[in-house]
Specification:
Tetracycline Repressor, domain 2; 10 helices; 2 domains; about 220 residues; Arc Repressor Mutant, subunit A
Length: about 220
């Protein structure tokens, strides 16, 4: 890994490594500054606190994932909702996989922990990076279920998102129970196909019903 120039950049890189290994609670400012070859006061000077440095690390992780693996995967808004859904699932899983290394996996879990139990500082990151994903997924499902109420559409969108999050969050459990299902570069297309086909099965079932009779 290339060593960045500038104290702030070195702190971000060091914070990424230390937080990935220890999480927020057990990471220490001294460990981060030692790795960054910076004065222990540098974290407070550049970021304000260890917690704010932590949020900067998570934000950078999300921004880099979005840059490298955009959720649209090259599919335009004019494409069919089915094409857009498949692309979104693929983009989400590629972002979750990251570089496929242990550090990326642990950082992804830290982001998921914040999504499940958000801290006060995570609010801004959620609004900028997480809510737009939910809104895009909701809009795609809504296109496929015209006439259905927002609650039904929201449940379907949440179900799809939940499948994606499971393959991300439960990798260690899957490795013990069903290792062939673990998210990795070699099987990501099969997982995308499964989530898409399974989700479309539910959507097609709803389509076959009269929307006015759909259970809220």
């Amino acid at each position: 890994m290339t060593r960045p120039q500038g104290t702030k950049a070195r702190l971000l890189q060091a914070g990424r490594q230390v937080f990935a290994r220890h999480g927020l609670k057990d990471a220490t400012v001294r460990d981060i500054c030692d790795l960054a070859e910076a004065n222990v006061a540098a974290v407070s000077y550049h970021f304000g606190s260890k917690e704010k440095l932590y949020m900067s690390v998570l934000r950078d992780y999300l921004v880099e994932g979005e840059r490298r693996y955009p959720l649209d995967q090259g599919i335009t808004p004019q494409s069919s909702p089915e094409e857009r859904l498949r692309a979104l699932v693929r983009g989400f899983l590629y972002q979750a996989l990251g570089d496929g290394d242990a550090e990326s996996e642990r950082l992804g879990k830290l982001v998921l922990q914040e999504i499940i139990e958000p801290s006060e500082l995570f609010g801004g990151i959620f609004l900028k990076h997480c809510k737009p994903r939910r809104d895009r997924l909701f809009e795609i499902v809504q296109q496929m279920l015209p006439g259905f109420d927002d609650i039904t559409v929201g449940r379907c969108a949440s179900s799809i998102a939940g499948q994606c999050m499971l393959f991300d969050f439960a990798r260690e459990t899957m490795a013990r129970m069903t290792p062939e299902l673990v998210l990795k570069a070699s099987n990501i297309d099969r997982i995308v196909a499964h989530i898409f086909d399974f989700s479309m099965g539910g959507i097609e079932r709803l389509r076959s019903q009269n929307p006015t009779l759909a259970t809220a």
